[in-house]
Design a protein that fits this description.
InterPro entries: Ald_DH/histidinol_DH, Ald_DH_C, Ald_DH_CS_GLU, Ald_DH_N, Aldehyde_DH_dom. Keywords: Oxidoreductase. This is Aldehyde dehydrogenase family protein. Belongs to the aldehyde dehydrogenase family. α10 links the parallel β12 and β13. α3 packs antiparallel against α5, α3 crosses α7 and α10 packs across α11. The chain folds into two domains: 282 residues, Aldehyde Dehydrogenase, Chain A, domain 1, CATH 3.40.605; 196 residues, 3-Layer(aba) Sandwich (Aldehyde Dehydrogenase, Chain A, domain 2), CATH 3.40.309. The strands form six sheets. It has a seven-stranded mixed sheet, with helices on both faces. Strands 9-8-7-10-11-21 form a six-stranded mixed sheet, sandwiched between helices. The longest helix has 20 residues. The N and C termini lie far apart (75 Å). By secondary structure, it is of the alpha/beta class.
Length: 499
């Protein structure tokens, strides 16, 4: 209770300042009595929910447009931009406890995970700060009296809509490349977790980003989100969320000014386990469980399907069963907790409905102790593991976005690739094998934007943020991460000078 009371003070102090950040200052909002803001750890009320008014959203768009047209950020020198963004990153680290507390309180991730998120957020901003003077255009060969080159120009006003699962990280993933490219931004966080994003905007302004360049508005998707998506003041939309909402936003874009879009809309990601991993079963099961149940399974790249070669299926299934049982939901505000809650009761009930349907469709449920926690106040849900899941079943096809792992056996590489590709999504996949002769087959035939081929179960080495990628199918389109993300938030102009 002490942790909750302390977190509540931080949240109420943040909310009292305003629920929009426009033109460098907080703006009060309109009370929404129909939206209950409850802490998913105990079901207790956090705030009297207030959201941005329609006029505030309009004002944010107008101010962002003015900031872009007056070039107050666009014309800042690269070295100055770098210094400001690095100061922004340092401020995020300095305020990591506040940011983490707000996220843990609003959406139920553990305070330890939320603290790590704050550091990842700072690292993202640092990455793009350091990219400012490393992004080059191309010069064409011409006659001696001519000069022809490509120029990366900012798109203008970016409308950014981000989800609740990683509030600060998702915001930084839009903010970093947008600012380096010279744009202005109107960002709408989820109505379920927005306080940390407001604090991010304040820190950015304090670091030196000019007023009006980064604005944050709040509200429901069908109100504030739709208003941004329909606005002709926006020159581009960037969205992370469900594919159904993404397609609706595409319709809004088409109905307004046909603005370009970048969309990341989830996945049904597979971990493919080959039989040559038989000597690493216990540690491999722990890695797959970690990647399936991170953030309580509420992440787009969760390994929600384990495709396991039949030769190792029994042993790995048993080990995954044991790994799931070690992840017990606990108070997200307790620093010792390693598994938090679902964002709210409505989402928890939706996930439970998926679990019930999978049982009806014949999937064998190995782990489901969730009835033990369903009676607790809050939105707790234990990890759930299913075995012998039919590749065509609902559980294997639909993104659950919760702590539910589906295990499906296979007999050959070709069958595994066919099953992995057999959904409408195309976000990510992981292949666990020592057979590197098959790398080309996996990389050319798996229809995903992000592919990891691993043999070392103990290694946690990654490329960081350096490689961009683009999803396929229902997972969306457009490149995020890496230097290529800067191209996403820019338009390519050709310039030819003769004389």
């Amino acid at each position: 209770m002490e942790n909750f009371i302390a977190a509540l003070e931080i949240a109420r102090g943040q909310e009292d300042r305003g629920v929009s950040f426009v033109d460098g200052q907080y703006v009060p909002g309109i009370f929404d009595p129909s939206f209950l803001k409850l802490h998913p750890g105990n079901g207790k009320k956090i705030l009297d929910t207030r959201f941005s008014s329609s006029s505030t959203v309009s004002s944010a768009l107008e101010i962002a447009r003015k900031a872009y047209e007056t070039r107050i950020w666009r014309d800042v020198t690269p070295s100055e931009k770098r210094a400001i963004l690095l100061q922004f990153s340092a401020s995020i680290i300095q305020n990591s406890k506040r940011l983490a507390t707000l996220d843990a309180l609003e959406m139920g991730k553990t305070i330890s995970d939320a603290t790590q998120d704050a550091h990842v957020t700072a690292a993202l901003i640092t990455y793009y700060a350091e990219s400012v003077d490393k992004w080059f255009s191309k010069k064409a060969l011409t006659a001696s009296n001519s000069l022809a080159y490509n120029s990366f120009e900012p798109r203008g006003v970016i409308g950014a809509i981000v989800p609740w699962n990683y509030p600060t990280c998702n915001a930084a993933l839009k903010i970093g490349p947008s600012l380096v490219a010279g744009n202005s931004i109107v960002l709408k966080p989820s109505e379920h977790a927005y306080l940390s994003t407001l604090l991010l905007a304040e820190l950015a302004c304090e670091a030196g980003i000019p007023r009006g360049v980064l604005n944050v508005v709040t509200g429901r998707g069908e109100t504030s989100g739709q208003q941004i998506a329909r606005s002709s003041s926006c020159n581009m939309l960037t969205f992370t969320g469900s594919h159904r909402t993404g397609r609706q936003i595409m319709a809004y874009s088409a109905a307004s000014n046909g603005k370009p879009m970048l969309m990341e809309c989830g996945g049904k990601n597979a971990s493919i386990v080959m039989p040559d991993m038989k000597d690493s079963i216990a540690s491999l099961a722990e890695r797959i469980a970690a990647e399936s149940f991170a953030n309580q399974g509420q992440l787009c790249v969760a390994s929600s399907r384990a495709l396991v070669h039949r030769d190792v299926a029994d042993s790995l299934t048993e080990a995954l069963h044991a790994a799931a049982l070690t992840r017990l939901p606990a108070d997200p505000l307790d620093s010792s907790s390693r598994f938090g809650t679902i964002v709210n009761g409505q989402e928890r009930d939706r996930i439970r409905a998926r679990i019930a349907l999978a049982k009806e469709q014949g999937a064998r449920c190995l782990v489901d102790t969730s009835p033990d926690v369903i009676r607790r106040a809050g939105s707790y849900l234990n990890p759930v593991v299913f075995d012998q899941v039919d590749p065509g079943s609902d559980l294997a096809q639909v993104e659950v976005f919760g702590p539910v792992l589906a295990i499906t056996p296979f007999d050959s590489i070709d069958e595994a690739i066919a099953i992995a590709n057999g959904t409408e999504y195309g976000l990510s996949a992981t292949v666990w094998t020592n057979d590197f002769k098959s790398i080309r087959k996996y990389s050319s035939q798996l229809n995903v934007g992000k592919l990891q081929i691993r043999a070392d179960v103990t290694s946690t080495s990654t490329h960081g943020f350096s490689l961009g990628s683009e999803p396929m199918g229902a997972s969306g389109f457009g490149v995020e991460f890496g230097m290529d993300a800067l191209n996403s938030y820019s338009r390519l102009m050709s310039v030819e000078i003769t004389g």
